[in-house]
Amino acid sequence: MDDEWICGRLGEDEPWVMGAVNPPVFENSLFTFATAEELGEAIRNEDERYVYWRGTNPTVDLAQRKLAALERGERAKCFGSGMGAISATISSLVQAGDHVLVLGAVYGPTTQFLRYLEKFGVTHTHVGDLAGCDSAIRPNTRLLYFESPSYMAYAVVDIAEVTAWARERGLVTAMDNTWSTPLFQKPLTMGVDLVVHSLSKYIGGHSDLVGGVVIGPSRLIRPLALTEYQLYGSAMSPHDAAKVIKGLRTLPVRMAAHQERGLAVAEFLSGHPAVRAVHHPGLPSHPGHAIALRQMTGFSSLFSLVLDTESREEVGSFLNKLRHFRIGVSWGGFESLVNAPALSTEESVRATMGIPVGLVRLSVGLEPADTLIKDLGLALEGVGRLA
């Protein structure tokens, strides 16, 4: 199926939509049945049947169908937050006594959740590459979790190589694909077992939604939907699902614009004397660029730079000088955002991820690239060796 058709039309011409331009939002908390037998059968299959809002409803189901189709997966389950999807996914794959391998840098709260699982007897080890995986794997290792491009550093993982390594050793793989969106990268087609996304980012696209999704084969999604999804209570509301559906309609157009503007800003920064490094997989200078070209069809506009400084105060001053980049967390909306882990992230987490003091994350929005470049140029004056 064509991705643009999936984003804009899949499921929207079915009879239940009744010809509405925007698919209906089912606000009811429950559904009723003609007989007690029908209710019982529906409850036994609540991952697919409409029983109660905490399970699913038609609006949420349409969003799930679109997202599964985009990722080329059998099924998807939407959650009330990205961390809802991540925590439920990891929990569904491990039990007391299991060990998790974490490859490369991953979202900070994901690491915090893995630490939380230690009190239930689930341990984890962070490694930097497959050689590290070879050294760290244990008889009780069950799951290999990773992001590509990776958190903050935006290192590129050879997905097919990693999944082949894991499969040979009987491990399940789960990957966060939020950076690329399903338009630019489809990990399930490269052997990943489960893919998670924060829908709050590019897919929602307007900084007015918090949501998450996990996508994969029915054999893994069904038990997750019947247990962790139900018991953790991180259900997506039909109103948020409607925002996901609307966000998907413009996703192909927005991602093309994000890519263009992001690369223009990254190219400017890569030649600036106050910048030590730019971590953007779309730049030919990026160590993983060749792999990225092989497994991705485009690049989003989230990347990082490393200022020529070891001073947290100087990093803060740089952020404060910016006028068009707003200071804030999250990313993927119209507005351009800036954040610096050294000013907000727990030092131990930052050390685990290998994030230097001078690293600054940029989310390039949809404003004109020339405006953003001028803003960055003025803020860089006086940084590090230019002082």
Automatic annotation (TrEMBL):
Q: Which domain of life is it from?
A: Bacteria
The molecular function terms of the Gene Ontology recorded here are: transaminase activity
Task: Enumerate the cofactors the protein uses.
Answer: pyridoxal 5'-phosphate
Task: Write down the Pfam families for this protein, in alphabetical order.
Answer: Cys_Met_Meta_PP (PF01053)
What family is it from? Answer: Belongs to the trans-sulfuration enzymes family.
Supply the alphabetized keyword list: Aminotransferase, Pyridoxal phosphate, Transferase
The protein's name: PLP-dependent aspartate aminotransferase family protein
Native species? Nonomuraea helvata
Q: What is the lineage of its organism?
A: Bacteria, Bacillati, Actinomycetota, Actinomycetes, Streptosporangiales
